[in-house]
Every structure is written in C-alpha cells, then in structure tokens.
Amino acid sequence: MLNVDKLRHDFPVLEENPKLAYLDNAASTLKPKCVIEAVDEYYTKLGVNVHRGVYKLSYLATDAYEEARSKIADFIHADFEEIVFTRGASAALNLVASSYGMLNLEPGDEVITTELEHHSNCMPWLHVCEQKHATLRYVPLDKEGRITVEAFKSVLTDKTKIVAITYVSNVMGYITPIEEIIKLAHQKGAIVVLDGAQAVPHMPVDVKKLDCDFLAFSGHKLCGPTGIGVLFGKAKLLASMPPVEFGGDMADDVNCYTMTFKDAPYRFETGTPIIASAIGLGKAVEYISSIGLEEIAKYEYFLKQTAIEGLKKIPNIEIYNASAETGIISFNIKGVHPHDAASVFDNNDVCIRAGHHCAQLITKWLKTVGTVRASFYFYNTLEDVEKFVQSVKEAQEFFGTL
C-alpha cells in the first residue's frame, strides 16, 4: 500500500480542505506543491518566450520547455520528436482528425469508433467523415458495455482506414483490449488513434509496446496544470501531416505565395507555446513516476472495490460498471436524477461528478439521462470511501428511496 497520509501533504487543496473527499479525479486531478512551484518558478525566474530569444533567460526557458518534452517522451516510452504539446487531449485528438484524417480519408473509406468514446474522440470523426464522405462504424458493445476483440473484428474491413478508440472509458472505467485491436487494425493497413486521457495518469503506458499510431492525454488529469495536453504520434506519420494552424514559430520559410514549415513537433505548435504548463507537466510526470504507476493502479482498484462492496449493501442502487478494472464507479440511485443526488454529496464535502460526462453515446446506451460518477486517485483514503458510501445513504433518505 502507498503511504497515502504522507502523499496527501503534497497537495495544498487537501491541506486547505482537510474534510474534503475529492472523488472527481476522472474530470481533473489535484496539483501537488512541486508542480505549482515549477510553474511559479518559471514565471518568477524566467517568464520569457522560448526558441526565438538570443539572450540567457530565453535559452534557459527553452531548455526547461524542451526538457519537459523529453520527460514526457520517457514517461510513455516515445521519442522526443514524437511529442506535440497541445491545449489538451481534446485539441490533440482534433489535430489528428483535422490533419491526418482530412488528408488521408477518401469517399467510401471507413472509420471505426465506439459508443464508449468521450465526445473528443467521436465528434471530430463525425465531422471529418461528413466532409470526406467516409463511413463511421461503431463496435458493438457486449452486455456489460465493453469493447471486445470479437466485436471489433465484426466491423473491421478492408475499407477501414482509421480506428479511433478509448484506452479506458471515462464513464465505465473499462480497459480496452487494445494491443490485440491494434494488431488487427494494422493487418488491414489502418492506423489507431488512442484516447489515453483516463489511462496515462493511472497505469503504465508504453506506446512502443502498444504500437499505437497516435495517443492523446491531458495534463490536468495527471496532476499537471490545466491548458496543456500531449499528442504522441509516430514520427513518420507526424512528418506526413500538414499543420492546421499557421503563424509564428512553426514556419520555416515564408514567401508571398509559398511557405514551408518546420519539422514535427514544432510545425504543430503555432505561436507562443504553453511554456509554464509544459514545464509543470514535466514535473508532474516526475512526481507520478516517483510514486509508481503500478502501485497507483492497484491502490485505486482497492478503493474502488471497497466502495463497490459498500454500495452493494444499499438497496435501490444501480451500479453500471461493478467489474471495471480501474478506479471509476458509475451508478444511480433509482428514482433520483443524478444532478439532484450530487447536491447531497456536496453538502458532505464529497466531490463527485453527475451527468453524461461528455460521453452521451454510452449514457444513451445505458438508457439513462446520466450517471453519478466517483473516481479515485492515489491521494484518496478509506475515510473518503466511507464518506462516499454514507452520502449515498443520506441521499436516499433525503429523496425517500431507502
């Protein structure tokens, strides 16, 4: 087990709010002091732009920014030039669709996705398929709402060009059997775009071992700052892709009627980059690595299983993902709207999420207007679990469903 009491002292929000049970980690994680200090240090000691300056502070800022890229590449076992900084996971996924998708899809081609996707990994492909007259196909989910290899095979054809798929569902918490899916997609010559927003912060991810073509994740779900995300792309694919934004720092040579661009990743980082947040994210992956992702995954699962056992003892609770391998629980109190239930949790200083979680396809598949979602991280405690379960009971009492 992790030394959770010690780790909790690293988080100012928990120090300021000692009674808080923060269980909305799938939406965003709290930030440790070392990350906050890294961002503050950049603004306090450097505070200048990168790449262009010919003075010492700019050199130092550039070194810190590019060192962050190197740390993040090592974190997911990528190469330095395969890491593109974006405004978030959504921006990263949109970049792939708007650049690679628009360039490579032809009428009649097929894109495979699933009903488990966050809007960021299905809406861009809906748009691109409409523009390019390609076909969007969905993997049938099994009775639990899982993606299976056999179901994936049922929609994979010689026309499949792109597979846009989640590694871990942000609603159901299921881990996709992604290695086999990637192998099958590659046998058809298709590329795989992997949404890793709920995977990278919670379990070891090795892009070389997976052999995925693209992977996107967020900084703020990884104890990093908001406003920063990462796109991993295989070097040969990034080199083939045109930029989708144009302006400062990404240009190589500009004439009145012609222009050329820098090599990846810089051709995709238009204008002044997200310097402070990138540096903060570099510190965040250092911090997470010092704890250990395997230990984090085990501990989250332990907390989630303990919470599930507590919920099962309460009548009129519908749990949608009891068998999930990660620290996400989606459930409803029968007869109570999830937003109404959430207000009771808030009164008890328990932070949970209620709604469709930017994943309306799976919410509709579940035949519900939304769910209550609790999601755990390594700084949560058994006391947090107890407060959560007690809040469910109190919500039932308040709405008269117990």
Give structural notes.
The chain is an alpha/beta fold. The chain is built from 15 helices and 15 strands. It has helices at residues 4-8, 12-16, 33-46, 56-75, 89-104, 123-132, 149-155, 178-187, 207-210, 235-240, 275-291, 293-312, 338-347, 360-365, 382-399, and strands spanning 21-22, 83-86, 110-114, 135-139, 160-166, 191-195, 214-218, 229-233, 251-254, 259-261, 317-319, 328-333, 350-351, 353-355, 371-375. The strands form 4 sheets. A 7-stranded mixed β-sheet has the order 2-8-7-6-5-3-4, with helices on both faces. It has a 4-stranded antiparallel β-sheet with strand order 11-12-15-14, covered by helices on one side. Strands 1-13 form a two-stranded parallel sheet. The protein starts with a helix and ends with a helix. The model has no long low-confidence stretch (mean pLDDT 97).
Return the string of H and E elements. Answer: HHEHHEHEHEHEHEHEEHEEHHEEHEEHEH
Sheet with most strands: strand arrangement: 2-8-7-6-5-3-4
Largest sheet: 7 strands, mixed
The separation of the N and C termini measures: 34 Å
Question: Which runs of at least 5 residues are low in confidence (pLDDT < 50)?
Answer: none
Structural class: alpha/beta
Computed Rg? 22 Å
Shape: globular
State the total count of DSSP E strands: 15
- How helical, in percent, are the residues? 40-55%
Number of helices: 15
Portion in beta strands: 15-25%
Q: Please tell me the overall pLDDT.
A: 97
